[in-house]
């Protein structure tokens, strides 16, 4: 079994956050208009801060289909332009999967969630532009459930159409599994015992300049200055900030998946920009494919490497440039990514 890296570990919840699991909608009741008036309880999406909860409502629309509503903020630490960026869309999709699990599939609140794969393909860049009101996201999801020999739900693969203010802007996929706390602790102990701890904790490196990686806010830079390796390769070190309000919303015993995706995205943007003579600020992600095979430890150095792939032409975005990226600890790639970017202003 692959052990994935994810930000979806159960967050601590107080008595006021306890909820009754809704389970399956009886006979798939008539489809209704979803509500955007208030967010769901934070425990249902594994968040500590109420301000980090995007999902507002959900319903089951068929035997294995679900609609989930989310409101995207107009002001957020990860939002640095007039368009909704990759981290917010990915986080809304992650919260969608977690909410469906608890509210509609009766996955207990004490389970650890492990994201094995996740992808997002942007279909309409212009549709991601902010309007005069917070964005209304709708994720229409289909789940393929898988169970153990006893019939107990182990996890599911999902596919989703992502609509923003009524316009389809992306397609998402992913794979989630659920394990008990004891199983999770055993997985973590086995993984950590196999590592070499003789060198001690890794020192915190110096982040790159925001302009190098297509960012504006220094708080959101998560890699060092990239250096070239060979003709088409680039390398940097991951710089985690455990006080970051979004990437580390609650304490984790590993580097979260959204941090690793952002590190891969930043190195891909920097590599494409430097190899092509482009401004990193003009490069927008149009697709990301992420695969997590092992946990990335908080207290070990993480190297991120990228190899550029040939340009391709896309009728929607024009030239699309990409990179194959991997995050490495002690010589082993625990997660891999294919990131594609296009010029957009």
UniProtKB/TrEMBL annotation:
One of its Pfam families is AfsA
Q: Which segments constitute the A-factor biosynthesis hotdog domain?
A: 44-173, 213-308
Name of the protein this chain belongs to: ScbA/BarX family gamma-butyrolactone biosynthesis protein
């Amino acid at each position: 079994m692959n052990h994935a890296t994810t930000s979806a570990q159960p967050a601590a919840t107080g008595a006021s956050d306890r909820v009754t699991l809704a389970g399956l909608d009886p006979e798939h009741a008539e489809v209704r208009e979803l509500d955007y008036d208030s967010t769901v309880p934070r425990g249902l999406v594994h968040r500590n801060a109420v301000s980090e909860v995007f999902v507002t409502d959900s319903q089951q629309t068929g035997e294995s289909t679900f609609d989930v509503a989310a409101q995207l903020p107009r002001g957020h630490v990860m939002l640095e332009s007039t368009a909704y960026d990759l981290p917010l869309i990915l986080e809304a999709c992650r919260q969608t999967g977690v909410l469906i699990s608890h509210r509609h599939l009766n996955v207990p609140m004490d389970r650890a969630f492990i994201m094995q794969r996740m992808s997002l393909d942007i279909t309409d860049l212009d549709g991601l532009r902010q309007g005069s009101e917070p964005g209304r996201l709708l994720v229409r999801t289909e789940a393929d459930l898988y169970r153990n020999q006893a019939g107990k739900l182990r996890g599911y693969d999902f596919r989703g159409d992502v609509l923003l203010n009524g316009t389809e802007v992306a397609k998402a996929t992913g794979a989630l599994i659920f394990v008990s706390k004891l199983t999770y602790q055993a997985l973590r102990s086995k993984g950590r015992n196999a590592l070499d701890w003789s060198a001690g904790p890794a020192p915190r490196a110096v982040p790159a300049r925001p302009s190098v990686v297509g960012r504006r806010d220094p708080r959101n830079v998560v890699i060092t200055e990239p250096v070239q390796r060979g003709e088409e390769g680039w390398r940097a070190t991951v710089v985690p900030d455990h006080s970051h309000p979004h990437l580390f919303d609650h304490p984790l015993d590993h580097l979260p998946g959204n941090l690793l995706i952002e590190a891969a995205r930043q190195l891909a943007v920097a590599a494409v920009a430097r190899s092509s003579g482009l401004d990193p600020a003009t490069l927008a992600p149009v697709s990301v494919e992420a695969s997590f095979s092992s946990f990335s430890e908080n207290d070990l150095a993480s190297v991120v490497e990228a190899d550029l792939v040939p340009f391709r032409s896309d009728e929607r975005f024009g030239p699309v440039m990409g990179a194959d990226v991997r995050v490495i600890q002690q010589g082993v790639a625990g997660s891999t990514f294919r990131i594609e970017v296009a010029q957009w202003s």
